[in-house]
Write a structure and sequence with these properties.
heterodimer; A: alpha/beta; Rossmann fold; four-stranded antiparallel β-sheet; 10 strands; B: about 400 residues; two-stranded antiparallel sheet; 15 helices; 12 strands; about 20% strand; elongated
């Protein structure tokens, strides 16, 4: 067995707890992800994929069950420690890139390092420059995100997700808003990073063609893992 | 990106720069508010300075007078009075007892800058068929002009006073049909009279004062009013005009004189200043409140507009504290920049108004007084107002749930 990056044990999530409208959307999820694995999370809309991704990304907490990131039980951590752990170990790529429009593409890539360190430095700019080159956008690094194509924006988002050299990248339908050619290109970029640096990827997707090109496919239906 | 600027400052400035129109409108609003405060404060300071200058250059800051003459009840024996009612005696013109000694003592007090003995009283000025009741001030020009700047009020002739000269107010000269070089017969109540030549005509800026005021040499007044060698007042100026009352109380406690400071004799002036200050402060508070609400409204909207950015920053490891600081800095910056522009607007407005609004004689309505402290205090207060106004939206931003924020 490889090095464990992520482990979920009996994770449940309910909303409106204690009220008549209480709803459980995740019913005891068990999942394990090893370093270097590229996992596709598939399932119909409303099956709980995004909720699961938010919990794995430490943006939300499970109602019960345990979540381990690199062997650390996150249920024991306070808000500040969770924020720190999230910043250092997890990168995010969203369907709607979510680049900050007030900054250039390269500055967006610098952002996680800037948030972590507090001050911009030459090394931060250099690393962002390297990442922009890696995603093939060095030429347009100084452009504002708004002036870039959807594919380019998503590549910048991938570069940003890699800025802190995370152990795990969570991608929520990263190709959902792209045409087939751009979607392929963005997926290949992620796959390349996964292979080159050993970063684990967990990608939510409706695109079965892309899912089949991943190491593993986990199907979530009605808040349960229906199969792998 | 500036290498020395913290991340929160960079983000705050970028967010403000991106929402250009919004930022411009709110800074304009703050600038107008601050401009009103600067304009009003500087105007009030100028008017007060002008009023103070007029008051303090036309009268002594402390006047020493002989003590009030009081009647004592006649007693027949212990506890037995001759009369049940005691009438206040009429106040005769009397000299200050041993005034040269008191004058010398005053000259030795470090807070006092000028001392001048004066002989004052009433007389009748006669020229042909016309006669007017006047107030005579017998002065020693060299020392008196350091206290009351009579030469500054001269509109005709000069401030020269030999024993045969008199300086009169403009209205008095007009009423008597007299002009420079004409002679006046000045007669005291005792019947003593002298003939004096008008060497100067003064305008004290007050019609009633111009109708009655006249200056003669001290010796002329002493012989006219029948108090040879005596003086009725000793006029003083002090280093710190606002300490005049304290100095006056000290003098009165250690000398056989009554000491009146300009603060006591102009109590109504101080009441007027206080009323002005109160209304000015009220206006400042309401302007500051409207500025604060403006900043808060803009930042609340900004938090809503930027909720996705806030969510992303939080997802990338940004702390609640960092998000809080980004919005607080925006509030502080808006207040500070608005204060700088507002100060320029206020100064510009006042300079323009000063150049267009004049007194009837064409002289300036008030002096332009711009104290550095006004601008420093305004900038500091506007920045603090901005920070306080940003507190609510900043807290709201910091408390945003990243999942909800990203979802928008």
């Amino acid at each position: 067995m490889g090095e464990e990056v992520l482990r979920l044990e009996g994770v449940r999530k309910s909303y409106n707890i204690g009220q008549p409208s209480e709803t459980e959307v995740l019913h005891g999820i068990d999942l394990r992800l090893e370093r270097g694995q590229f996992l596709a999370l598939t399932g119909p809309s409303g099956s709980g994929k995004s909720t699961l991704l938010n919990i794995i990304g430490l943006l939300d907490r499970p109602t019960s069950g345990r979540l381990f990131i690199k062997g650390q039980d996150t249920g024991m951590l306070g808000d500040a420690a969770i924020t720190r752990l999230r910043g250092h170990t997890i990168g995010f790529v969203f369907q709607d890139h979510h680049l900050i429009s007030a900054f250039t593409a390269q500055e967006n890539v610098m952002m996680p390092m800037l948030v972590d360190r507090g001050f911009p430095g030459a090394d931060i700019a250099a690393r962002a420059g390297d990442l922009m080159e890696r995603v093939g956008l060095a030429r347009v690094a100084g452009n504002l995100a708004a002036n870039m194509s959807g594919g380019q924006q998503q590549r910048v988002a991938i570069a940003r997700a890699l800025a802190m050299n995370p152990d795990l990248v969570l991608a929520d339908e990263p190709t959902g808003n792209l045409d087939t050619k751009s979607a392929n290109s963005v997926f290949e970029l992620m796959r390349q990073v996964n292979r080159d640096s050993g970063t684990s990827f967990l990608m939510v997707t409706h695109n079965l063609d892309l899912a089949r090109r991943c190491d593993r496919i986990v199907d979530v239906v009605d808040g349960r893992i229906a199969g792998e | 990106m500036n290498r020395w600027l913290p991340f929160e400052w960079i983000a705050a400035v970028r967010f403000l720069r991106e929402g250009r129109a919004q930022t411009l409108f709110i800074i304009s609003g703050i600038a107008i508010g601050v401009g009103v405060i600067v304009f009003m404060s500087a105007l009030l300071t100028g008017l007060q300075a002008n009023f103070l200058k007029r008051v303090l250059t036309s009268q002594a800051q402390i006047q020493l007078l002989p003590p009030d003459q009081v009647a004592r009840p006649l007693r027949n024996g212990p506890g037995e009075f001759e009369s049940a009612t005691i009438q206040r005696p009429s106040q005769r013109t009397i000299s200050i007892d041993q005034w040269p000694k008191i004058r010398d003592r005053m000259l030795a007090i470090p807070e006092i800058t000028a001392v001048s003995p004066t002989m004052s009283g009433s007389a009748l000025a006669v020229r042909g068929d016309a006669s007017r009741a006047i107030s005579i001030s017998g002065i020693e020009p060299a020392s008196y002009f350091r206290i009351v700047r009579v030469p500054d009020y001269i509109v005709a002739g000069e401030a020269r006073l030999t024993s045969d000269d008199i300086i009169v107010g403009t209205e008095l000269a007009k009423d008597l049909g007299a002009s420079l070089g004409d002679k006046l017969r000045v007669q005291a109540a005792s019947g003593t009279a002298v003939v004096l030549k008008i060497t100067g005509v003064i305008d004290l800026g007050n019609k009633a004062a111009n109708e009655r005021s006249s200056y003669v040499a001290l010796r002329t007044a002493q012989s006219l009013l029948g108090t040879i060698g005596g003086v009725t007042t000793i006029d003083l100026t002090v280093r710190d005009i606002y300490a005049a009352e304290t100095v006056a109380r000290r003098i009165q406690a250690s000398n056989a004189v009554q000491a009146d400071s300009w603060i006591r004799t102009n109590a109504q002036f101080f009441t007027a200043i206080n009323a002005q200050q109160t209304s000015n402060n009220l206006i400042r508070v309401f302007v500051a409140l409207s500025v604060a609400f403006g900043i808060a409204a803009v930042l609340v909207v900004s938090v809503i507009q930027r909720s996705k950015d806030i969510g992303i920053l939080r997802a990338m490891g940004g702390s609640r504290g960092q998000v809080l600081r980004i919005f607080l800095i925006q509030g502080g910056l808006l207040g500070f920049v608005g204060a700088l522009l507002g100060s320029a607007v206020g100064v510009g407005g006042l300079v323009y108004w000063h150049s267009t609004v004049k007194q009837a004689d064409g002289s300036e309505m008030f002096p332009l007084v711009f104290e550095r402290s006004l601008f420093v205090i305004t900038a500091v207060l506007a920045t603090i107002t901005g920070l306080l106004a940003a507190m609510f939206p900043a807290l709201r931003a910091a408390r945003l749930d990243p999942v909800e924020a990203i979802r928008g």
